[in-house]
Specification:
This protein has five helices and 55 strands. The protein is mostly beta strands.
């Protein structure tokens, strides 16, 4: 590439006058076919840049502040050269022009005076980037420049090429002469699609085929030409409030250009082709603003403007490419128009006593944008509504004013009401000197025959409580609104909750009918209300309210609580309790109270003031637990009171309450059940009846006699083994010993009549090995055996005596402890008494009176549990035992026949 020739032109004179700025009128400069952007062409010297402005006629060139003329973009130079002008403009006037001729030269000469000419240097294997011009017309193929390797001086070489545009997309755009290294372009190239190509060339020896140098990467840069017009990037829609002042921002036009960024090809200039009377645009930034008087932008006259905008590159020069677009500027509404009435006044008629009724619709007009706060109306009653008889609202659908009468009008008081209605908007007025407008409304009241009216809607009277019946409280009368007379009007009560007042039918006098009690629940905060009505001759009515203020009198004494006051007893300390009094009266007939003890008190208590309503009652001496009645004198602030009795309980406490109270209390069902349960359990343990089995069918008599018994301890329901009669021992001179609740021995006698099988007699029976065992001998059995033995074997006593020689006893088990003997005797006597009692009852008494205990028969028992006491049924016939079912089979197995 050739270097850029720099030509320096100096002025002989350094005068600041523009006439002496240039020595010559033209200058020629040799340049390459394509000048790169940012290259210096000449340096203009001698001009005072403070007073002289230097400009270039060609937008591709720029004159800097220090006089340098440089290229702003890649500049192609035709074969016949290129010309532009440098102008010197004086601030005080005058102009000088320098013509610059660019001469295209392929081979540069040597440096000469006044010019620095590019020298041709020896080609090396590091060529600079190659440049081609986009969309060049041709003809094609067209040589760009040869690639020369230093190895060409010593070798016969050939070249190869690879990369985009050659053997990669777009394939075939470039070609390379392998012998000469000439790079050729075969067609036009669009820079916006392919701004640069990165290729790689290699050099090889023709004979050996070996590389003679390193592969060389290089670039082919496509120089831009201004072939793209600028375009708009966003829709051209803008808005601005109407009546905007000059200079108000409307919006910004955004545009772009596909040409090389930073070059003059993409420097856009903005301009307006229409609408310049109301809008302006900044040529460099594209910002649109308003111009002219604010009144020129009136939305109600014209709400939308169409403005044609032009965008042109090359900074708007004649050679620049341009584009146009139409921008829409919409004027936004402001509230510059108040609502106006369609009429200058309105008249309406309304009957008296009517209320909550729509009486008038008031339409309005507004030029502002509909259904916006600038258009929606808001009505105000500016005058004439001092009594609050009217209200006005806005119909959201029609934007009309709706006038209502909300409080009944009185024809006798006002036959005509004059109102002033003002119409406003939700938004305040702006941009205008107009004011809110109003309209008069004449409301005519029509007379209607009305009922009587009391002199006031309500009346107040003050009455002391407990005043005598018949006392006059006051008079409450009504008049006819038309005649202003009370003649012919009768009065009645509507409500009188406590029936305390009489209302005279003819005169309207209010008198006490029953005792007025301020403390009654009918009185709230000292006020008692009754409602009355007045009826005229035409049966029309009017109602009123009588408010009675009940004054308090001292008719209640302070009282102490009737419930017990608890004093917790503490060892070595005297207790005290707080007594709180209450009084239904109000101050000054109530608290503070005075507490004292009567003069004849017993000296056991003292009382001291605690606060206005309470006193502390304290022991003076130690007192026994229980309830004590303590007399106390309690009086109110006026000294009105009486002697009262405070019930004080002294007791031992836990958690602030007495552990037990001496006063009688009633027991609930659960408490009674808890008390009877131990007795029932004791009865169950004591009523263990003796079961016995006989083989003979003789009648068995049971007599209530004294007997002892032996308890047999057994844990099984299975049959036991045969018992050796020698092991059975009966105490001599009373039973020797027995273990309470257990069995220590068995009495058997195979020789007894009716007991040939060796049956055992007693209270508790077990079934072991076929032997039925018992631990207590009943008194009935004693009588039976005693009688039998007395006739056959001699008299034998059973109650604590040896039964006879036929019985064999062994004392070795029962004579261990004298306490056991005592228990045996005690149990025997108890059962003797119980059986004697049961013997006096009617049939069936046994099953009903005796608590039955059933033993557990064990797992898998077919018979289940068997009760301890069987139903005897008929004493003379025991065949009923055969019909009792499987539950009594175990008992039947025990009772063996002879």
């Amino acid at each position: 590439m050739a270097n850029v020739l720099i030509l320096s032109i100096y002025l002989v004179s350094v005068l600041s006058r523009v006439e002496t700025c240039f020595k010559a009128n033209n200058v020629s400069v040799n340049v390459p076919p394509t000048i790169q952007a940012g290259r210096r062409i000449i340096i203009v010297g001698g001009c005072d840049t403070k007073s002289v402005r230097l400009t270039s006629s060609d937008p591709s060139f720029e004159v800097t502040g220090n006089g340098e003329v440089v290229t702003l973009a890649v500049v192609p130079v035709a074969t016949d050269g290129r010309t532009f002008f440098v102008r010197a403009l004086g601030k005080s006037g005058g102009e000088r022009v320098l013509k610059v001729n660019l001469v295209r030269s392929a081979v540069q000469g040597r440096e000469h005076t006044g010019q620095e000419i590019l020298r041709r240097t020896k080609r090396r294997w590091s060529p600079p980037d190659f440049h081609i011009l986009e969309n060049e017309l041709g003809p094609y193929p067209r040589d760009i420049e040869p690639i020369v390797s230093d190895s060409e001086a010593t070798h016969k070489v050939f070249y190869t090429l690879s990369g985009p545009g050659y053997d990669q997309y777009p394939v075939g755009l470039f070609s390379l002469n392998k012998d000469t290294g000439m790079l050729t372009v075969n067609g036009p190239v669009d820079r916006e699609e392919f701004p640069v190509f990165k290729l790689t060339t290699s050099v090889f020896d023709v004979k050996t085929g070996q590389p003679t140098d390193e592969p060389l990467p290089f670039k082919v840069i496509v120089d831009d030409v201004n072939d793209n017009a600028p375009i708009f990037t966003v829709p051209l829609h803008f808005s601005v409030p109407e009546l905007s002042t000059p200079g108000t921002l409307v919006g910004k036009v955004n545009a772009t250009d596909r040409d090389e960024e930073g070059s003059l090809h993409v420097k856009i200039k903005y301009s307006l082709l229409t609408g310049t009377d109301r809008f302006a645009i900044d040529s460099e930034t594209g910002v649109i603003t308003t111009v002219g008087p604010s009144s020129s932008l009136d939305r109600e006259v014209k709400d939308k403007y169409m403005v044609v905008i032009q965008i042109k590159d090359l900074d708007g020069t004649q050679k620049g490419l341009s584009n146009t677009g139409t921008a829409t500027v919409t004027l936004l509404d402001v509230n510059d128009n108040p609502p106006t009435f369609t009429k200058t006044s309105y008249k309406v008629t309304v009957n008296e006593n009517e209320k909550d009724k729509l009486i008038l619709r008031i339409p309005v007009e507004d030029k502002d944008l509909a259904n916006t706060p600038n258009w929606v109306s808001k009505f105000v009653i500016a005058k004439g509504n001092q009594n609050g008889n009217f209200r006005i609202e806005t119909d959201p659908k029609t934007n009309e004013g709706l006038l209502y009468v909300t409080k009944a009008l009185d024809y006798e008081q006002a036959k005509d009401v004059k109102l002033v209605i003002e119409a406003r908007n939700e938004a305040e007025l702006t941009g205008t000197e107009s004011k809110w407008v109003s309209v008069p409304v004449d409301v005519a009241v029509t007379n209607v025959d009305e009922g009587p009216q009391f002199t006031a809607p309500s009346v107040r009277f003050t009455v002391k409580e407990n005043v005598p019946n018949g006392t006059l409280i006051g008079t409450y009368t009504a008049v006819d609104p038309e005649t202003k007379s009370s003649k012919g009007i009768n009065y009645y009560k509507v409500t009188d909750p406590a029936n305390w007042i009489n209302f005279d039918r003819n005169t309207g006098e209010l008198k006490v009918a029953n005792t007025i009690d301020r403390e009654s629940h009918f009185v709230q905060d000292g006020i008692y209300n009754i409602t009355v009505k007045a009826v005229d001759a035409s049966s029309k009515t009017g109602t009123g309210t009588v408010i009675i203020m009940v004054e308090d009198v001292n008719d209640n004494v302070p009282t102490v609580p009737t419930s017990e006051l608890v004093v917790c007893e503490k060892e070595g300390e005297l207790g005290s309790v707080l007594v709180v009094a209450e009084d239904s009266d109000q101050s000054p007939f109530s608290a503070p109270f005075s507490f004292s003890l009567p003069h004849d008190n017993d000296g056991k208590w003292s009382v001291t003031r605690f606060n206005d309503t309470a006193a502390t009652l304290k022991q003076i001496k130690m007192l026994p637990t229980g309830i004590h009645d303590v007399p106390i004198d309690v009086t109110d602030l006026q000294g009105f009171g009486r002697k009262q009795t405070a019930k004080v309980r002294i007791c031992q406490c836990r958690n602030g309450g007495c552990l037990a109270k001496e006063s009688s209390v009633s027991l609930g069902p659960l408490a009674l059940l808890a008390m009877l349960l131990p007795l029932a359990l004791l009865l169950l343990l004591c009523l263990l009846l003796a079961f016995f089995c006989v083989t003979k069918r003789e009648k068995m008599e049971i007599d209530a006699g004294d007997s002892g018994g032996i308890l047999l301890k057994s844990n099984t329901e299975a049959p036991g083994e045969e018992v050796d009669s020698s092991l059975i021992t009966v105490p001599i001179s009373g039973v020797d010993s027995a273990v309470k609740g257990s069995v220590k021995g068995v009495m058997t006698n195979p020789g007894w009549p009716g007991n040939k099988s060796g049956s055992t007699i007693g209270v508790h029976s077990t079934h072991e090995n076929g032997i039925y065992k018992s631990g207590v001998v009943t008194s009935d059995m004693q009588e039976y055996y005693s009688g039998q033995y007395e006739s056959q074997y001699g008299a034998q006593q059973f109650n604590g005596q040896l039964l006879g020689s036929g019985m064999d006893f062994d004392n070795r088990y029962l004579a261990q402890d004298s306490a056991l003997l005592h228990n045996w005797q005690t149990n025997g006597r108890y059962l003797q008494q119980k059986l004697a009692f049961m013997g006096t009852e009617e049939d069936g008494r046994y099953a009903d009176d005796v608590i039955h205990a059933y033993g557990f028969e064990g797992v898998g028992s077919a018979a289940g549990s068997v009760g301890c006491c069987s139903d005897y049924g008929d004493n003379n016939d025991l065949d009923f035992l055969n019909t009792l079912g499987p539950k009594f089979r175990n008992l039947a197995d025990v009772c063996k026949k002879s």
